[in-house]
Amino acid sequence: MSDGNGILGGGVFFERRRSAATSNRRKWVKTREKWLVVLGIVLHAVYMLSIFDIYFKTPIVHGMDPVFPRFSAPAKRLVFIVADGLRADKFFEPDSEGNFRAPFLRSVIKEQGRWGVSHARPPTESRPGHVAIIAGFYEDPSAVLKGWKANPVEFDSVFNRSRHTFSYGSPDIVPIFCGALPHSTWNTYPPEFEDFATDASFLDEWSFDQFQSLLHKSNEKKEMRHLLEQDNLVVFLHLLGCDSNGHAHRPFSSIYLNNVKVVDSIAERVYNLVQGYFEDSLTAYIFTADHGMSDKGSHGDAHPSNTDTPLVVWGAGVKTPRPSSSNHSHCGFRFVDNHLHDALTPTEWGLDGIERVDVNQADIAPLMSTLLGLPCPVNSVGALPLGYLDLSQAEEVEALLANTKQILNQFLQKSQIKQSHSLYFKPFKPLLHYSSILDRIEELIQTRDYQGAMKLSENLRDLALEGLHYFQTYDWMMLMTVVTLGYIGWMVYIVIHVLQSYASLPGNIATKEQNAHQGKSSMKVYLFGCFFMGVFSLLLLVDRSPPLYHAYIAMTVFLWTRILTEYEFVKALWRTLCMKRSNDIIKLLASCVLSILILEFLVNSFTERRLYTWCFLIAGAVAPFYLSLLFPGRLAIKAFVWGACWCLSIFTLMPSEIPDNTKLVVASGPLIILIGVAARWQGLHIEVNEYWYSILKLDYRPKFPMLLALQVFLVGLSSLMVFLSTTHRTEKQELPVLHQLINWSIAGSSMVLPLFSAPNLLVRLTSIFLGFAPSYLLLSIGYEAVFYATLALVLMAWILFENAILYLSKVNGSSTSEHEDRSLRLSDVRVPLTFMVLFNVAFFGTGNFASIASFEISSVYRFVTIFSPFFMAALLIFKLFIPFMLVICVFSSITKLIGLPQLGCYFLVILFSDVMTIHFFFLVRNTGSWMEIGNSISHFGIMSAQVCDTLDFKIIRLLCLKRSISPDKLLDQLWHGKYYLQTPFLLAPDDHENAECCSCKRVRIPSCGPGDLGSNPATPEHLLG
């Protein structure tokens, strides 16, 4: 494995020639790598944004005229109630005693109105859900960057079209729609009220009290009374209690289920209050939810518990109940959450005898508009659900036609904008003659062929939606081609740089490479590249393309221009490869194929975590066997490697939705302490003549002797705080501020302590492991705390494995004398590949890092209980990054241990990551469930972000081994007897004259070479004693 050859098999001769020229090239390499790292970060950041231009451009366009319905409004006012986070099944099903939790709304379903399930399109979050309901379109993805609160793009809504809107509820939702709306009256409670440590049903009562107070005040204020008597009014009550209680206590808890009763009671009181106040039967009522709640108290993905929400509509303009038909069409139509149309109603709901009308969430916006006789929001893509409306046949056709024209206007506006900006415009052919279709619909209405008019209107509406999608994806092919060529160019250029800077190459290649930089051909290539870049930029300017389009083109042209300047180097490299022996070519090809197979394995592991179980089961068997070939005996080491790998294999079989297990988290504290103390004890008591551990055992006199004891104390204290904090939440008590301060203090101080540890590999890594443990424990709720400890054992096994290979190469004399400057070898590819496997295990070992719903929000309750989505998300992401920090610390230490150039390894990691990145780029989806869509985006983003590991490498180099002695120099000094060892600190060469005898526990390594070690000097067994 360590045969001494370079990455192309250049041999020792070329290695020495390269070493002689290294000092002259070092400055050039450093300068080149600085801009290369910057280029990589910029390139990946720009290309990450490309998926939003390709797949997720904002659907909003401006400039359309509203389409008013040509019939009288069925209702004068609309009362709109949204129970945030209310699951459909918890709303409709009975409790354990057979009593239904929403008796009033069930009576409405059976006696007054219509009902169904509203299917939410993920991300099932509060802002996109409300935007879909009130504005009728599915949220622009850029809104996630604003925390679902601010409006990144102005959009129309039902509230905008109303004469006046009264709104009360959460400060996270109400200001989105009413904050800049002049014809609105609204109020919100303070954000501090959203405390997960309390029963949040009082928030719902607050919203009702505000509305009740409004009506009472109107009896005294004539202006308010006059306003309330106007038509086209909307009353919006946002009830947050179910969402907050679901997060804090889970949707099957008594608090959440009782909140369902509270919501039903508020709906009944609102109905009685409005009916008694107006007494005109011209009020329509809509009750629904923005999203559901998963069993573990989170939401975001496309699980039915998150996407299925109740919908109850009654009052003016709404049909009364009618018996359900057993004839299901099975037409294959699917809602936006990918659920089938005409799904059977669960028997336990007790509503299977009443007709159910399911809708997409965006369909509610045109329903509200039609009830009030208002034009639909101009950006709405919702289809009007006629099954809820009590209209005549002529009015139904007019309502449907208005809905169709409103969507068609969006299509026409997008088509006009694209045509005015394009040199070569490709229209959407099915709607080239849309005007004739509209004329035909009008003719059918005139002849009272309402069925034909409705069918034709529905077909035209479907075509308009297809046309919107066509222009939404108009630039796909061009952008995907440019970005793909850019990624390929970046990978090719990385390979060229690694070969030029870190590989052992024949001297004639290096000479030609240097000449290529100074040749006149480079200037011609640059001029050619500038010409192409100018032409493409001019075309994009004519098309009025966004600025990022110019960036995509510029990056791609620049990279390929740089590659063409290396033409002479590539040609000489090809000639060298052609002269190689077939065995060398086969080894190179086999390594490439194996690397690609491992990377494809990692790509598939993003969607199937159980693959890691097989990976570590195999690694646990193969690694000890390979160690047996290197070093017979030493069963304890092999058993450790085997046990660590097999223990880690268990975690990817466990559910990604981590169940609560406080006892396991508390027990993990002593386990972590045991591992840390055992590592330190091993470093202090290992036998001196075991070269296997020489780099692990050498230590400096500690500056802070009590550091280990302090870290152990903080880990133990964090376990105690986990128990105390969870007990308060379980008993429904508010978490004391003192507890939060203690938790913050433990987490903050523990992460600083590793900086004060001795700069020795084992000591520093142990200190880092103990330093991050308190934070991780305080953010854990279940088995992930044990995963943290097990991952540390596997990382130690990796260090032992690489150390074995290092000493074998030293004994066999195949290792060079200066590891810090040695070239990369073909066998060194195993190090970045192993890092990538462990990197992904660190992220996916305890769940699906790419899924929104895998963020267990209760993890942060020991630090903060007031709802703050971005702050909580930051804590969750920090928790997920802690295992990765351990992996990158060990990776940096291993490169130092075996003498690999760290930036060379970094570029190999980036190369392998980009092989996966370009794969995930083509796997990004914008169809199907949002769980699939969101995961595909996250997978692409995670791999693209790995280029930023260079910043981590710089930090880790300071954190892990700053001021530590070079491992190879230290090994050579020990080999030639220039150091004396004394547990636990190291004497410099100048101290050997003052060294005492062996009775004082000082041991001198004799000045001898491999030939002076005894009867069998070349065997590892001799070195291991």
TrEMBL record:
Protein family according to the UniProt entry: Belongs to the PIGG/PIGN/PIGO family. PIGN subfamily.
By what name is this protein known? GPI ethanolamine phosphate transferase 1
Cellular localisation: Endoplasmic reticulum membrane
Q: Locate the GPI ethanolamine phosphate transferase 1 C-terminal domain: which residues?
A: 466-929
A single GO BP term for this record reads: GPI anchor biosynthetic process
**Domain of life here?**
Eukaryota
Q: Where are the transmembrane segments?
A: 35-56, 476-496, 525-542, 548-565, 585-605, 611-632, 639-658, 664-683, 704-725, 737-756, 785-808, 829-850, 870-891, 903-924
Q: Name one GO molecular function term.
A: mannose-ethanolamine phosphotransferase activity
Cross-referenced SUPFAM superfamilies: Alkaline phosphatase-like (SSF53649)
**EC number(s) on file:** 2.-.-.-
Please describe what this protein does.
Ethanolamine phosphate transferase involved in glycosylphosphatidylinositol-anchor biosynthesis. Transfers ethanolamine phosphate to the first alpha-1,4-linked mannose of the glycosylphosphatidylinositol precursor of GPI-anchor.
Please give the InterPro entries that the UniProt record associates with this protein: Alkaline_phosphatase_core_sf, GPI_EtnP_transferase_1, GPI_EtnP_transferase_1_C, PIGN_N
User: Which pathway is this protein assigned to?
Assistant: Glycolipid biosynthesis; glycosylphosphatidylinositol-anchor biosynthesis
Q: Which CDD domains match?
A: GPI_EPT_1 (cd16020)
Q: Which UniProt keywords apply?
A: Endoplasmic reticulum, Glycoprotein, GPI-anchor biosynthesis, Membrane, Transferase, Transmembrane, Transmembrane helix
Name one cellular component (GO) term: endoplasmic reticulum membrane
Which membrane topology term applies here? Multi-pass membrane protein
